[in-house]
Amino acid sequence: MVKDKIFVVEDDKPLAHLIRLTLEREGFEVEVFHTAEEALKRLKKGLPDILLLDIMLPGMSGLDLLEILRSDTATSGVKTIMLTAKKELSDVQRALALGVEGYIAKPFEKEVLLEKIESALPEYYVDENVLAEIKNILEFKPVFNDVQELREHLANINCAMRTLRKGAIPERYKEIARTLLVKLAEKKKEVLDRLANE
Amino acid sequence: MNIDTYKIHLFLFMRTDEVLDEVINVFEDTGILIIESNNIKKANRALHKMVGLDYPMLLGKTPESIPKLAKLIEIDGEHIVDGETFFIQKFDIDSGEIILIKNITEKKREEVNARVDFTTKVAHELRTPLTVIKGYIEVLKEDVTLTRDERKEILRTIRNECLRLERIIENMLELARIDSYKIKIDKEKVTIDEILQHVKSLFSKRFTEKGIELKFEIENLEELFVDSNLIKQVFINLLDNAFKFTDKGYVKVSGKHKGDHVEFIIEDTGIGIPKDKLDKVFEKFYRVEDKAHTIPGVGLGLAITKEIIELHGGKIWIESEEGKGTKVRFTLPYG
Predict the structure, then answer these.
(1) Which of B145, B160, B280, B286 to mutate to test the interface with A (most CBs of A within 10 A)?
(2) Do B138 and A151 touch (CB under 8 A)?
(3) What's the CATH code of the domain at B58?
(4) Mean pLDDT over the full length of chain B
(5) At residue A67, does pLDDT exceed 80?
(6) CA-based nearest residue in chain A for residue B145
(7) What pTM was estimated for this model as a whole?
(8) What phi, psi does B85 have (nearest 5°)?
(9) Touching check for A174 and chain B: CB below 8 Å?
(10) What is the distance between the alpha carbons of residues B233 and B237, in angstroms, rounded to a whole number?
(11) Crossing angle between the packed helical segments B17-24 and B5-13, to the nearest 10 degrees
């Protein structure tokens, strides 16, 4: 099971950090950029599954970056969600014309962010290997005082749950997938409860 | 917009026809109408243009017989007529009435646009820290895996974002306060030394600690007639900027007598401002890119400074060279 990769382009450092923290806990792999120029350099070397892009950036704006990405076949396909405090119609129209998956207005709720990302993610093909991996996650026993390991475990659970919710699952695995999803949810609750009690 | 009553009386002194014709036609954007015994005695070119008639076709007619004029002369003050905003003033004279009509539609539109623009910018400035505060509170609430140090770090970030909001709000209140000063400004006679002593005491320690020299070169100046609190604010804002954007060298404040006004220069050896950004630095919430994110501030200081100086009848402008430093000059009239 591969973690979905998200690039975040946001000039406000505390906000960028918060988004990174939130998404990593949810089992995403995150890279943060504070300017469009930095992001462009990185994007030329490889694309993420989702690009979270702020509009108002110092120097090149988010929309300018989007235009450059769309004009190059190597980068034109990157799925993009705009992140902005400006709800100006002209910006929305320009973004829509350039093709974006969604639009998130600041201040946003964590749920909205996750929802938009999840619905924009490409479908992931769930085969027996993936199901086996998820079973491994369920059986994994983290050391409870190792924060790092615990976090990794929770992130994996979140990632597995998303894969089952979002993924393309062949008919014959549907029942197994449903059971696994229930078990994962229980496991997540158990981990969180135990942690809260410690 | 207002033509004072005394000017109207001046009009009346000049009532030889040729002079009056010439004078009323000086006003290109104010329609002027003189009515005597319900007949149009005089009407300037601007008024003819407003009602769509060739000059001087209005003369001798009754104002009621001109449809557009009939509506306008019925009102007084600011009114919207057929989708356009007019400002109308009426003055009685012995033999009749003088009416001044000004179309202020464009000016009104600009005012509204500026207000909308400002509100949008304010909302944007407030939203980002709010997002961060809300988000981190949720993390604190939900993420049970946070270590003690991480919690501390998050609380510190929340506190910083609160301070950022506080600064924005304080600056906005300051702007509002200056707006109210436009109605009444509290001027008194004050020496420049008095003002600078206060400012010096606020800054000298900070400058010494950062290793930047703070110099004053002030000529023997006459007393100023200003609102001393506001002028102190000007020096504080400008020195604060110079301090923030200068890492080595000096900051120099100089003051020179120049005829009917005094000119001050605040010069620094800091990072400077790119040429293409110079005319923007006085805009509200404008911050020069790149630097904006490493140096705290909300981008209202120079806007406030400019308003204070203009309120005193002075001017402010900036010269700067990137990498070399910045010179802010401003003038204050003695009067």
Answers:
(1) B145
(2) no
(3) 3.30.450.20
(4) 84
(5) yes
(6) A147
(7) 0.63
(8) -95, 130
(9) no
(10) 6
(11) 150
- Residue A11, chain B, CB below 8 Å: the answer is yes
| Shared domain check, A114 and A83 | yes
For the stretch B32-86, pLDDT in tens is 998 888 899 889 999 999 888 898 888 989 988 988 888 888 888 888 888 889 9
When CB atoms are compared, the residue of B128, B144, B147 closest to A15 is: B128
Helix/strand/coil for B172: helix
Check CB contact of B290 with chain A, cutoff 8 Å.
Answer: yes
Half-sphere exposure of B105 (CA within 13 A, CB side): 8
Would an 8 Å CB–CB cutoff place B161 in contact with chain A?
A: yes
- Answer yes or no: do A54 and A145 share one domain: no
Q: What is the domain count for chain A?
A: 2
Q: A with B: how many residue pairs have Cβ under 8 Å apart?
A: 62
Per the structure, the complete domain to which residue A106 belongs is given by: 5-120
Q: In what order do the strands lie in the sheet with A80-84?
A: A29-33, A5-9, A50-54, A80-84, A102-105
Measure B24 CA to nearest chain A CA, in Å.
Answer: 45
B139 and chain A: CB distance < 8 Å anywhere?
Answer: yes
Tokens 């630097």 belong to which residue?
Answer: B291
Residues paired with B226 in a beta bridge? B188
Q: pLDDT digit string (tens) for A124-168? A: 888 888 888 899 898 888 877 777 888 889 899 999 999 898 888
- Does the distance separating the beta carbons of A22 and B139 come in below 8 Å? yes
Question: Could you tell me if A93 and A178 lie in one domain?
Answer: no
Contact B40, B63 (CB under 8 A): yes
φ/ψ of B106, rounded to 5, equals -65, -40
- Which domain does B269 fall in, by range? 188-333
Closest to A195 (Cβ–Cβ): which among B131, B135, B144? Answer: B144
